[in-house]
Amino acid sequence: MGQYIMRRVLTAIPTLLFISFFIFALLAMSPGDPTGNLPPSIPAETKERIRAALGLDQPMPIRYVKWLQQFMVNEPINALEQITGIQIGNSADRLRITSWSARGKPVIDLVLERLPQTLWVVGTAYFLAIAIAIPVGVFAAYRQNSVFDQTSSIVSVIGFSLPTFFTGVLVIQIFAVWLGWFPSLYNTTLKVTDWSTFAQQIKQMIMPVMVLAFFQVATISRFARSSAIENLKHDYVRTARSKGLGERMVVTRHVVRNSLIPVVTLIALGIPGIFGGAIVTEQIFAVNGIGQLLILSIQSNDLPVVQTVLMIFAVLVVAFNLIADIAYGILDPRIRYN
Amino acid sequence: MSISAGAAAPKVELGTAAKRKHRTLWGDAWVQFRRNKLAVLGLSLITLIVLGVAVGPYFYRVDPKAINILEASVPPSPAHPFGTDDLGRDMLARCLYGGRISLSVGVVAMLIAMLVGTAIGLFSGYVARLDNLLMRFTDMMLTLPQIPLLLVAMSLFRDPLRMRFGLELGAFIMVVTIIGLFGWMPTARMVRGSVLSLKRKEFVEAAVNVGVRSNGIMWRHILPNTLAIIIVAATISVASAILTESTLSFLGLGFPSDVPTWGSLLYENRNYMVKSPWMVMFPGLLISLTILAINFMGDGLRDALDPRQRQ
Fold first, then answer.
1. Is A26 in Cβ contact with B152 (below 8 Å)?
2. Quick check: B147 and A173 CB within 8 A?
3. Does ipTM exceed 0.90?
4. Residues B270-299: pLDDT tens digits?
5. What are phi and psi of A106, to 5 degrees?
6. Using beta carbons and an 8 Å cutoff, which residues of B are at the interface with A?
7. How many beta-carbon pairs below 8 A join chains A and B?
8. 3-state secondary structure of B183
9. Among candidate residues B173, B168, B146, the one with its CA nearest the CA of residue B259
10. Which architecture does CATH list for A110-331?
């Protein structure tokens, strides 16, 4: 097992390097120039000095390595320092990536400010989606071609066909405008201090969570269904039945356990996607999360923030790929010897 | 398969007055496809939408860009079936015009994705030396965080292209290329899998033995046999390209808001969704119906083109 994990980690490193290089090259190749917005009265010589001060006169590989060190070593230490409050090394001398538009505020601070909102909404939606999708998928598989199965598969095709920006609009129209149950916009200044503000927080989270969860339920339940159908055909199910186990036991102890193996992979691999989906829902409901930060900084051409947010997404993707692989290896021992 | 079902196949037979009709691969697939009610529903819906946006503007002769402040924000009525927007432009005309752009983005982006995906899948499946390299590359492309990267790429390269090709064409080239170049990976994997299994089939062995060169085997014998997979992948790819385009436009980074597409109509009217919901409901509904119809159709096609599914 240790060797298997080791091998997985070693293959994750080149992937991460590839993604980071892709992000770096994309932004380096972009036609934009940091001195492009300066007034024309500034002489070309000064502009050249500004570019040199930013390190732009150096060859691309060197810029890439320096940039990588900043992201992979310096900034994580900065973030750790900020969270724990313990000073690590000579932190005053360590470079920080600062935003171009938010008055030179360190990018990590901006991200850490916004991360909790995204995590709350995305996390709740995902847990909810998993809790609904797996029983639905397994039951649909158990009663294949029943009314329940057919309805749930139609609903799930609808679920992943409807774009989240449309379901979002629809949900606002129904629950906020017609019924008036929930506020249509997310109150970003709300601090949870007592029960009533907690209730308010729940209330304003319901709609974004609903929209995100609906899409995920559709994807996961379809997958769980096909995985369970496959497992129900196996010999071990017949063995379990013939040794006298009740149907309930056969399904929950034997079939569900085995059919969850690929589902676990799907769930781990879907996490980066749900963060991508959060960009849209944060835009609709005006949640001040990390997705909104990305859109805002793209609009204001704040490249350091854009790069950082992209890198965070990339690290998430690679990390969850790794987790999916390792989980698969633990759950299905056959994989390890492949 | 029963004879009556065979009779329902389209008349592509060779005109022999035989008692049993000749059956073709595509005829069989069509029979199978027609059994799936949802797939047929999807096909009719998508035909209706395509016909509507293609022919509709010739019958509904209202200028989608004509501003009429006196009739701003009018709810749906006989004069304006989909209502008007905040500048008094007719929403039905805008939806029809926007549909043309949205659907063509879907089709062209799909063509790019299919071209790249099929080529990479074919080469990595057939040429063993390239397999590892190409599949590594595919896997890495799959791990890129798609939507965020698309957003950034759009914002970075939009202006230069717009200057060179004009507002509408520049945006179109941009959107289509980016979506296509980020969407070929699933196709490449599916094609590769199919090529790997086809390579070991007897008919390929026979072709090798009669001395067909590997170029001929690849293009004449293997490629046509992967067509079923490519068709299914293409269907799904159209739906996902339309979805991606409208997501980008909805976030304000696809087509500029003066070029109406279904996504950009949603974007430009998003602030009125509480006061005048028709401005966002109709474009949103059209996107959803299109994608739903294509997905239903894709499910049906997958079953119809897979011979193992036939009884």
1. yes
2. no
3. no
4. 777 777 777 788 888 889 899 989 988 888
5. -60, 135
6. 38, 139-140, 143-149, 151-153, 155-157, 159-160, 239, 243, 246-247, 250-253, 266, 270, 273-274, 277, 280-281, 284-285, 287-288, 291-292, 295-296, 299
7. 123
8. coil
9. B168
10. Orthogonal Bundle (1.10)
Contacts of A165 in chain B (CB under 8 A): 246-247, 250, 266, 284
- Give the whole-angstrom CA distance, residue A282 versus residue A289: 7
Are A148 and A139 a contacting pair, CB within 8 Å? yes
Its pTM stands at 0.82
Q: Could you tell me if A28 lies within 8 Å of chain B, comparing CB atoms?
A: no
Give how far A243 is from chain B: nearest CA, Å. Answer: 33
Closest C-alpha to B308, from B5, B28, B110, B6: B28
CB A175 within 8 A of CB B274: no
Residues paired with residue A106 on neighbouring β-strands, in sequence order: A98
C-alpha pair distances (Å), A197 with each of A127, A194, A201:
23, 6, 6
Residue pLDDT, tens place only, A62-72:
888 887 887 77
Q: Which two tokens stand for residue A231?
A: 């497992």
Answer yes or no: do B266 and A165 touch at CB < 8 A: yes
B103 DSSP assignment: H
Side chain identity at residue B227, one-letter code: L
Question: Crossing angle for the helix pair B167-181 and B227-250, nearest 10 degrees?
Answer: 130
The structure tokens 């997501």 sit at: B247
CA A122 distance to own-chain centroid: 8
Query: Residues spanned by CATH 1.10.3720.10 within chain A?
Result: 110-331
Looking at residue B22, what DSSP letter applies? P
Give pLDDT, residue B212: 85
Where do we find the tokens 């067509």? B227
